[in-house]
Design brief:
It contains four helices and no strands. The N and C termini lie close together (about 10 Å). It has one domain. The longest helix has about 30 residues. The protein is mainly alpha-helical and about 130 residues long. The protein is elongated, with a radius of gyration of 16 Å. Helix 1 packs antiparallel against helix 2, helix 1 runs antiparallel to helix 4 and helix 3 runs antiparallel to helix 4.
Length: about 130
């Protein structure tokens, strides 16, 4: 067993599950989406992205691309959250919460793609 591959797989799957935990719930209800879940999803997603650097394979390039998409979506969600809390007079409206959750849903799709690619790559490895 390769410990580097274990850590790599761990962070990819953890990024996906944390994002799923944030995404789950009513779209417009802020009580179903906690800011610290979003923060944890961003941090773990960034760690997973860093771990993908250096892989020179075609699958590695696609894994890096999906991770960068997830990072971009999650960071955009955090920016919208900050905008709603600190700029908009009415605070986090249901429309802003729906935008935040939609952005995290896009990141969830990118993370799920990474997990599927990781599983396919693992199955395709020859012993």
């Amino acid at each position: 067993m390769n410990p580097e591959k274990v850590v790599f797989g761990f962070f990819i799957v953890l990024a996906c599950t944390l994002n799923f935990g944030f995404f789950l719930g009513e779209f417009h209800n802020i009580e179903h989406h906690h800011v610290f879940e979003l923060f944890a999803a961003i941090v773990v997603s960034l760690i997973a992205t860093v771990l993908k650097f250096g892989d020179r394979t075609q699958v590695g390039a696609v894994l890096l691309a999906t991770s960068l998409v997830a990072d971009l979506q999650l960071i955009a969600a955090a920016i919208v959250w900050g905008y709603g809390v600190h700029v908009v007079e009415g605070g986090l409206t249901p429309e802003l919460v729906a935008s935040i959750v939609s952005l995290s849903g896009g990141a969830l799709l990118a993370n799920a793609t990474s997990v599927v690619l990781l599983v396919v790559e693992t199955v395709m490895l020859r012993r």
